[in-house]
Amino acid sequence: MTQSSQPVLTRPAVWAFGLVALPLSTIGLPLTIYLAPFYAGEMGLSLAALGTAMMLARMVDILVDPFIGASSDRLRTRFGRRKPFLVIGVIVLLLGMTQLFNPGQGVGLAYFLGWLAVMYAGFSLVQVPHRAWGAELSPHYHERTHISSVRQFFGTAGLIVSTLVPAIVLSQPGAKSSDVLHALSVMTLIVLPLVAVLNLYATPEPAARPAPPRTRIEWKAAWRALRRNGPLRCILLVLFIGFSAETFRQTLTVFYARDVIGVPNLGLIYVYYFVSAFVGVPFWRWCASRTSKHQALAAGMAIAIATNLGLYGLGKGDVGLFTAMFILKGFCFGALDLLPAAMLADAADVDTAISRKSRVGLLFAWCGVVTNLGQAVGQGLSLNSLAWVGYRAAGETGEAALSSLRVLYALVPSVVLGLALLITLRYGLDARRHERLRLRLQRRAATSPDT
Q1: pLDDT of residue 214
Q2: Which end of the chain is more exposed for a tag (fewer CB within 10 A), N or C?
Q3: Nearest C-alpha neighbor of 244 from the set 104, 372, 338
Q4: 3-state SS class at 101
């Protein structure tokens, strides 16, 4: 793709692109936090079985994501490469969500696993091409951070909605978790198609070079290029470790807050958490512009580790301290989500320099693979760990089980996230080096328009 083929990037175009993240985040949080307690507490499924099922469903994404990314790179239609996937993905996602969030009486593990896999596949069909589309909207180091920050801005707004809805629904007499999931599904059925249509019409898709003559995806060549791309390897490793640690912790939050701290309304605390994250997005964008993306990311990780360790020392009735630490942790949330996406867009330029091909979709698919793998490991190990220590999902009072929960919730994620922090500090693609790379790609494009 040449520089001349780059569309004019307007503010409405960027905001229409980022707005898609709002409904996706609205239903993404319940998958991590509320789904297991609902199916274990109200539907009667075992924690170990749910943890294994969540891991297996994530494996579907791991197998599907590279094909989605590579296919969106190679697709050529008059509507674009990425846009058709958005349409198909929204349909699949809404179908899976409707069935998963509104189960009938007596459904079993096979029902849960099947519709969870469908929902995850829908997420991949939307997110992988959509993130690749965002990376292609601008070739500039700091403008990519801006695009990611707008997407994170709306994504965090969706997380706030996903916490406000439970708080409102559960305030009604006799309301249960099933009512919360039903309300979220109805809202998403309305909002997601609307924002998808707005994105399709308002955000341009950069023109792609002609389709390659060969129809087979060259997986070996793609793997060799990935191995030579140091920044990409670093980002993928950080994503895998970071998502494993944070998903492990998030999956245990409901149990920790209820049985260790005695929180009366976790939904309200999550509102504070995501409002703090919402406020923090401009700060992390500013921090990345003053230092670098990877240094800002490392700072966010360091604060997250400190709050995890602080949570370990809390006990029954420390709701105020728990809330304060959650608010501080929420402030870091934007750094842990928006900055890796902006960094990956830069690493895609390294891949283009190595391979002489534009494979942004495939690279974001690899990102999806390691993210899903990290989430699968985090969810599977956390719930199975609770089962191994004899934890009772309906409510635990035994001191031994609660002590094990403390270690699992606070200490284990801190150690794992510390490893991701050390790797992040070794990342070397900053603004100065990326500018040299961008100029090199521009010179190559001027002499070889099809490159």
Answers
A1: 52
A2: C
A3: 372
A4: helix
Q: And the tokens for 103?
A: 């189960």
Q: CB within 8 A of 172, min separation 6: which ones?
A: 179
Question: Which pair of structure tokens corresponds to residue 269?
Answer: 């605390």
- DSSP single-letter state for residue 260: I
Distance CA 196, CA 341 (A): 20
Q: Residue 5: inside a domain, yes or no?
A: no
What is the per-residue pLDDT for 3? 45
Q: How far apart are CA 332 and CA 26, in angstroms?
A: 19
| pLDDT on residue 320 | 92
In a domain, 105, yes or no: yes
Give Cα 335 to chain centroid, integer Å. Answer: 12
Report the SS3 class of residue 1: coil
Burial group, residue 384, by CB count within 10 angstroms (0-12, 13-18, 19+) = middle
pTM: 0.71
The C-alpha R_g of the chain, in whole angstroms, comes to: 22
Q: Which pLDDT score, from 0 to 100, does residue 367 have?
A: 79
pLDDT in tens, 103-153: 888 788 899 999 998 998 999 899 888 988 888 888 887 788 888 888 888
Q: At what angle do helices 109-136 and 11-19 cross, to 10 degrees?
A: 170
Segment 395-415, tens digit of pLDDT = 666 788 888 888 999 999 999
The backbone torsions φ and ψ at residue 449, rounded to the nearest 5 degrees and listed phi first, read: -55, -25
For 195, other C-beta atoms within 10 Å of its C-beta total 20
> Average pLDDT of the chain?
83
Q: Which of 42, 57, 56, 61 is nearest to 182 (CA)?
A: 42
Range of the domain at 183: 14-203+226-446
What CATH number is given to the structural domain containing 65? 1.20.1250.20
Residue 4 pLDDT: 43
Q: Which residue has the tokens 């599907």?
A: 64
How does DSSP classify residue 264?
S
CA atoms within 13 A on the CB side of 330: 21
Please tell me the chain's helix, strand, coil percentages from 3-state DSSP, rounded to the nearest 5.
80, 0, 20
Low-confidence ranges of the chain (pLDDT < 50): 1-4, 451
Both tokens assigned to 442? 């521009």
